[in-house]
Amino acid sequence: MSEKEFMGHRLMERRLEEELPGEAELFHVLGGRELHLDEVLTRAGGIRRKRQTTRGLVAAAAVVALVAPAGVVLAHRESASGPAPLVQPTTSTSTGPSPTPTVDPSVERPISLAALAGEPVGPPPATGYVDNDVWHDPDGSTTDQSFTPYGMLDAAPIGEDLLIRTGAEQTGDPTAILVHRGSRNTVTHSWPISGGFATSVGGNVVAFAKPDGTPVVVQDGGSQWYTMPKVPAGAEVAAVRGEDCKEQSPGGGGCTVFLNSLGNQPKTWLSTSHGLVDAASAHIRSIAGVSAAGLVAGISEHHADLTTCSEVRGTDDQLVWRTCDNRFESFSPDGSRLLATNGIGDGLGDTQLDVFDARSGDPVVRYRVADGGAITWMRWEDDSHVLAVVFDQGVWGIVRVGLDGHVEVAVPPVKANGDPVNSPFLLPR
Amino acid sequence: MDLTTTTGGHAMAAHKPTVRADDFEAWMTARQRWLLRTAWLLTGDVHTAEDLVQTTLAKLYLAWDRVSAHGVDSYARKILVNEHASMWRRTWRHREVVTDDFTSHEVPVRDEAYDGTRTALWDAVSALAPRQRAVIVLRYYEQLSEAETAEALGISVGTVKSQANRAIATLRERLGDRTDLVGWEEER
Fold first, then answer.
1. Which sequence spans correspond to the domains of chain B?
2. 3-state DSSP percent of chain A in helix, strand and coil, to 5
3. Residues A34, A40, A46, A47, Cα dihedral to 10°
4. pTM of the model
5. Searching chain A, which residue's CA lies closest to the CA of residue B139?
6. Quick one: fold of B118-188?
7. Which of A35, A49, A369, A371 to mutate to test the interface with B (most CBs of B within 10 A)?
8. Cβ of A94: how many Cβ atoms within 10 Å?
9. Does the CA dihedral A72-A78-A84-A87 come out positive or negative?
């Protein structure tokens, strides 16, 4: 750089230092205003709710018949093509440590990525996972959506296909797309979507809701999809019970989609392939999961200070147990356990990972992340293991925690790259 | 139903008290004007700046327990610039612009209440690419070092240097050097 260039450069630096403070003051001159705490807390609540609805509200359920009224309406087949491909369950036999039921539930066990450094890394999540808009199957194959404008906000495998929540190419509107796994640019269908996905316990049905309140179920490995009876617009799917939504199936068929209407007056709904639409619970305001035995778990009270109370209810909406210390996440695939986290919806993410006996409410195992850490996503891998996306000391990773008290890394940590809020990892619904 | 007699159930616990809001509000009262000014320089739009700061403060509130023992200002700044980067990155990806020095810029909105006296320098800064503009704001308004700027933006020190040099070269080209040199010489 010549002396003239150097002087010009330095002068520009000085001008910037002198003039930018004056320009900054224009914010107030132009009518800019200061924010009230209430506005900030409202936005925080919105972020918090968004996080809650973009993670494991997956139900674990088998087919439980609902009484159908006479003259029921069959689920409407919206479109279908091709033969039924293979069905791939979302649950699996873990390759991780085998559980022992002798863990002392009064002991809070640590989850620390730092403490796991140098320890053997376990197998990748049997459920698959998302890393920076790329879907990773357990066998190592990938499905890349990182080249698309909105990437992969949510994912749910179905057979050899993958349902992805993303933004519409032109408008950015929330959209569900169905793609073939292991491929690029093979979108076979797309729908507008409100909220996220829910997957049946066997992985044979994935459900979501359109913005107008119409539930959509995708099954038969992604080759067929049906619309279900409509609920109020804006509702989001919380769970789906049943492995086949075709009413005329030889095995009986039939499924139920559970939905949450959020907002100022939260309400829960169920929509069945028999044609029935009804309130799912008079007491639970936001469903987290449903079990094979007919249990429904979710938030019953949401307070202004972000604390919550949650309940498990059984047949006829009868209270089974409740707590204000935890917020429920989902039932284990066999329905015997209930995954839960902090009762207070506060902080960067949750810090507790607790498992309860689903029917008695007795604690089974308790985990806590290290100071400064957070869990931003958790779901069952199988009946004995939970996968959790963890932030700890500037890195993100996926860990596998067992009901036997054993913790191992499932996906090695990566640096947070200056973003302490948004994880590169997602776990499927 | 008597909750305490529910089979295996848990008695309802009292709500956990929280002092988070009080602590947070004290910090917010003291520091939000600074955040708003920086956001305004980054975005050039009053309402976008307010929205950016609202999201920043909300995320800071959610992370309050984890940052209060450390540098809250630097943490808040990092959230702010990352949130801003996400805003323009989404816009960039949406518009499918493929060059680094794209021409899709946030342009200041002139408020009717404003008397119109705005410096040519500010107009030129406003026309910079978002990342270059962020580097300029952090280096010459926030007075951060190159290392601190790199840390806040999540980029390397080398990138900070190159982006700052390119931005200043662009500003000099747009504003002209002659007057500047006279001023510089006079000051010397």
1. 19-98, 118-188
2. 15, 40, 45
3. 100
4. 0.61
5. A17
6. Arc Repressor Mutant, subunit A (1.10.10)
7. A35
8. 20
9. negative
